[in-house]
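Work package 3, deliverable 3.1, input record:
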Amino acid sequence: MTDTDVLLQVRGLKVYFPIEKGILLRRRVGYVRAVDGVDFEVKRGEAFGLVGESGCGKSTTAMTVAQLQPSTAGTVTFEGRDLASLSPRDLRHARMGFQVVFQDPASSLDPRQRAADIISEPLRICARLGILDVDAGAITEKTFSLMESCGLSREFASRYPHEFSGGQRQRIGIARALALGPRLIIADEPVSALDVSIQSQILNLLKDLQRELGLTFLFIAHDLAVVEYFCSRIAVMYLGRIVETAEASALYQKPLHPYTRALLSAVPIPDPGKERGRRRIILRGDVPSPSKLMKGCPFRERCPDAMARCAVEAPALTAVESGHQVSCFLYPAVAVAPAARDGPA
Amino acid sequence: MASGRFSRNSIAMTGAAIVALYLAVIVVAFFWVPFDPLAMDAAHALQPPSLASGHVFGTDEFGRDILSRIMRGCGVSLAISVAATALGALVGTFMGTWAGFRGGRWDHWIMRVADVLFSFPSLLLAIFVMAVLGEKSFNVVFAIGLVYIPQFARVSRGAVLAIRQADYVKAARSSGAGSGFILFRHLLPNILVPLVVQVSLSLSVAILLESALSFLGLGVQPPAPSWGNMLASARKAMVIAPWTAIYPGLAIVLLVLGFNLLGDGLRDVLDPRLRNVR
Amino acid sequence: MKEPGADTPAPPHDASLLLEVEGLTTEFRTEQGRVAAVDRVSFQLHRGETLGLVGESGSGKSVTNLSILRLVPDPPGRVVAGRVGYRGKDLRTAAEEEVRVLRGRNISMIFQDPLTSLNPVLRISTQVQEALQLHHGLGGRQARAKAVEMLRLVGIPDAERRADDYPHQFSGGMRQRVMIAMALSCNPEILIADEPTTALDVTIQAQILELIKGLSARSATAVILITHDLGVVAGMCDRVCVMYAGRIVESAGVDELFSDPLHPYTRGLLDSIPRVDRAGGGRLHSIPGSPPSLIDMPDACPFHPRCPSAMDICRRAYPPETSRRAAGSDRARTVSCWLHAEVRGGPTQREPA
């Protein structure tokens, strides 16, 4: 695997939010460790999924990668360049390479702008900044072609967001994300807010676009079934850390980390016969607060297989098979072929 | 669009009608009043209202025609209220938008200043300012304006905070847009609605504040007519000549009602429209 | 397709009919016109069974259960027609006082958002006790003891101490448990759960669903479970009604519905959801178009613009409800679709397609 295959590389990413108390003078009393040391890579052309429950830090990770949220530590490298080290001007250039599709079709579009203006805004912004050299006519043409590829007819161009359905609004959001011709799409829960019968339409659209435009996806979701359908490689997050990374099929057929196993066993399957025969792993308790400083493995309080060691040391993400990494003491690191990589602690 | 809903909303229309009536009175009063509002006529002092004498609302203790004084006073009161509200709105909105947009320490300290201003009862604060600056009509604008600054700061900050989190702002940012672009293209158009409603409601309270200040002798100075100082001088005569207090009082009440109805109606018209998204 | 070795579910504990809803219709008056949020909805609930009401947003599933208990805000909504038969009374036309007595005591509801369903300024114990004091007239100490017992039953750790906490000190999953405790505290015959786990994480959802299942089995409470998640339906329900645009388009036992869906909408839904037990890749089947606007709906099948099997008659008239007795079950299944409408008439039973 050569380096040019790797489009996005995240190393040691940490995002801590300070907690401040005090009426007049504010004191820092602690941190919310939203992202607590995350490493992963996204190869060109693949769909990489980041999955986990609420509070695991997946959305914060996505926003930090998209440079919409400053990081506390770690690096985000896109197409070989460390984004944090770029000058503002260079960053604006680089931004054209990665764009975001947001979760909520209701709040991702400015209610006071027409559809065509929303979709063409990235182009107009870059034209004003002198990064892109396009005239008004070219922008209009590009807008119409984007609408078409996203399944929106031209006559919708002058309508306002509230005149569209949820699925259509999401299509507008996708068209906007494609406007600058990005190589990487960061999709933050793109179908979670949509009705079931619309979800499949949008997922199909995204898959078609991936194929036609050769896009790479960083796909954030909490719905495991959606992630399994869309992604080729998946990382499972818990309390700000990645607990397991694997190819999609490997993750679902042979989940290793106790949390991944509990997560998969909790997902309801639309088949009554299967549901009746299932043995569910029910986790005790609730997710601990990300502001509590924990020693050892963050999952140990709820883990059905916790050992004494888990309370003292935190396991690192290590490869146990080619392409399959876990951070759990149940799996000692296995010597693997040099092609696979070890994640640093 | 919004104008269609406005005309169907009876509350808003009633409020608008009342305010329009007062505006008409101001225009008329500029050119003509039944009597000279300053002309004293001791012989006809404290005359009850009668059509025959021409004093439709009666005369005050100096024999001045009350209707004419109300009409002239209208312009003064409204001018001061509008100016004060505009001052409060501009300064307050600027502060609140800055606080909401920048966040962090700016937000913290700007809002503490606003909190301090807010904690004074509005009338006391206005009196204090008048005492410091002196009893001129012009200073009334400052006094009342100061009272409004924290109101507008809060409203605009809240609106900015809500919109700042919105994904479409993040989308603009991820295309490379700077803070200025986002402020003018996305934030300001979207905070207009709560601001408009707040302006309308503030105008009504401004009228009351101005009247209160004038009543206390801190606002418009006699002999220039103001509803407030008309009420002040009516205090002594009220028992035997109630019309000296009733008509200026009614003028105040009706205008305040008009602004309130207008504000409430505007809120109904503008807000659910935004909430009515599918 | 049944898995080899899977148990056929036992029929409901006893065949007594608990709740019978017939032709329920609820309208909303909006600026744009008349919206029939619930349109001639009929179903039955038997003692001890779990009935699923499945649909997407705008299908009318939530308004249906609000209509049963007369909790629809009036204005702008009004239950205009139909019958809600419970204990020999028609809840739709009964006196307000009679219905009020039933709420919380015989028929309880839990809602989707535990954040707004609990009063933030009252202690948990106060809120759980409220129903007990109201309906059973229990004194202060007795009510508290029962409340703590209920909290323990729903799995709140350290219940005695935590009963005095406030809602914001509880997590989403725990608040939902409190809601369940409140709903079950008076031993109702019917529990209506409106999307109880939609706002919860999937591992917490598994906990809560297990809890509901266990508690309702223990006390033979009948449950109406409203959800959009077909996986939840498969795991929890005995019978299912599928709703679309305010009407029930299909109802059947849960095994029948999943193995042999009749209505094209049901079929489309089942085919279009991604599943963890099936390999990914390829294309998902999808239903084109979007759910219809409910304003002034014409007399036609509401699904026809999106239906792959739409016929001319579907545009012109609403299909009648057709009943079918499936083999091996004593309950009929129904579907409202012109494809399955009885054209031949006559008493002979048609084979399942």
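Chain C is about 30% helix and 25% strand.
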